[in-house]
Amino acid sequence: MNNPNEHDRQERHPEWMTDLVRVINAPGYDRWRAMVSGTGGCSHPIHLAGESVIVDASTGEVLHAYRTTDEPSGHLLVACGNRRASVCAACSEVYRADTFHLIRAGLSGGKGVPETVSAHPRAFVTLTAPSFGPVHTRREKDGTVRACRPRNREKLCEHGRPVGCHARHEPGDERLGQPICPDCYDYPGAVLWQAHAGALWHRFTLKVRHTLATEAGLSSTTFGKQVRVSFAKVAEYQRRGSPDPATPRVRRSWPNTSGDASPWPAPSRRNGRTDDPSRSPRRTTPVSRLRSDVPAQHEPQRDLRADPIGPSALGHPGPHPADPSLGHLRLRRTTRTGSEGVMTARRSRGDDGLHRDETRERWIASVTAGYTPAGKRIVKKASGKTKTEAKAKLKEIIRDYEDGLVLASTDYTVGDAVKYWLEHGLQGRGNSTVGLYTEFAGNHVISALGARKLRDLSVEDVDRWLAAKAPELSTRTLKLIYGILNRSVKNAMVRDKVKRNVVDLCEVPEGREGRRSKALTLPQAVAVLTAAEQASARIGGYIVLSLLTGVRTEELRELSWSHVVAFVAERKAWLPVTEAGWKHSGGL
After folding, report:
1. Which region among 56-70, 329-343, 386-400, 572-586 has the lowest average model confidence (pLDDT)?
2. For residues 549 and 532, what is the distance between their CA atoms, to the nearest angstrom?
3. Largest alpha-carbon pair distance within the chain?
4. Which CATH superfamily is domain 414-505 in?
């Protein structure tokens, strides 16, 4: 074969085209397309399996039955509902729009919420996480990328590293969010902050209610019965990996006896303070220290910024669409569920992973390859000395997983495939045939290619193997050992041990010449027949029959003369020569 790879490219269509043609021509394509459309363009729809039955409780009659086995794919497709655009853009857009309209209705009314809520006190509060140390970031101004953290190039930190960074980072730079000096960065504080973010938010909500009750001159119990404080919280993950605990919208409602939110009474002052939080000034309050080893002068601070959200000056009953708080909400709902930053690329449970094993001093790549019948997760792993090497192996594992090959052992060799075929692929064959194939497989296939990993077997390997065998084996023997390897790899491909059968792409070369023929020439055959006529009838018939039929003489020895018939003209019938006699007018 001149160029097996070129032949492969000519014979095989692109994989996406093959899949497209298969899907379009499959039965039930219209139903499958309707299910896909029903997911709203979800990138990772959930495949549900099961059945549902609607039964009349009074009569027991089955009114409706549905089974996913009746679907073209055997599953019902349902949108994943993931809020991250980097995972599923379609579902993220639905979530973004729903969240925006839900919070907008809570501020200005609509969707079942009375418009009177627009007159209730509302505040836009921003809670900011403390700094745990400078990190790499991407700064832009007027479309121009600026230096990350410009500082004096000669100034170093206490660990001997530059305190600044003059690089202009690209959006996909892996350094974004990483500390400029890992030793200066307060990793324990960052971890503790993230672990306590939920508790901080809980204490904030309690403090808000307590402060409002105090300003209103009411006990917390009485205040809780008369006033309902509503929160709409948006938590942001920064590129450095730390969350800003919340950017909430706070609204107070004064329930009446009908259960509806009645208009809020006019603000009043008690002890020189207003009971309207929207009139409170911006403030900065310290947070209790999370670590006892942090000096007081370096105690983390939390910024609490409260901006009032007032009725629109344009006469709109609620916040105008141009209200800065709603614009900020729209921006955050769009960007923070998108692909910016590091945390949007956070892996879900069961997704592929990449981590550093300090004990082995290697990078470890892993991917979930399915589940056992008992429900236990199957994880395939690979390792590399460098992160790039581990990433390449991770991509290979994912590619094999998508091709359905990830469950196959990476140590599966050509010898394993041949031995499996000899054991399971020759059922019903005679012992001599099995022995012949086993002998040729051991002497020519396993001895030469047996140690080669089946996944790594290439067309060039097979071509070189056949070329090496051609000078010592006949063409018939070459075809025999080629057939053994071809059928072994094909059997392994059916069992998802390898992607394709590279042996099928090769051609068998011509082998060495066989021994010269020992057949009689025409003059020799005429001489033998002439001599047979002069011999006795028994010997003559034996020789003539063997020569004219091509049956070997040792095979004819098993015949008896009762098996040879002669035509007797007087009786007009074929009779055994033992009955017709050796001298008769007919012929054998």
Report:
1. 329-343
2. 15
3. 148
4. Tyrosine recombinase, N-terminal domain (1.10.150.130)
User: pLDDT over 90 for what percent of the chain?
Assistant: 12
Among candidate residues 232, 178, 228, 222, the one with its CA nearest the CA of residue 201? 232
Cα gap 365→36, rounded to integer Å: 32
* pLDDT higher than threshold 70 for residue 232: yes
Q: What is the mean pLDDT of the chain?
A: 76
DSSP 438-488: HHHIIIIIIHHHTTSBGGG--HHHHHHHHHHHTTTS-HHHHHHHHHHHHHH
Contact present, 183 and 159 (Cβ < 8 Å): yes
220-229, 281-290, 471-480: lowest mean pLDDT where?
Answer: 281-290
Q: Which two tokens stand for residue 435?
A: 């022995």
Q: Which two tokens stand for residue 396?
A: 């290979």
DSSP readout, 151-185? --TT-B-TTSSBS-B-----TT-TTTTSBSSTTTS
Domain ranges of the chain: 4-78, 109-132+186-344, 349-402, 414-505, 522-580
24 C-beta neighbours (distance < 10 Å), count:
10
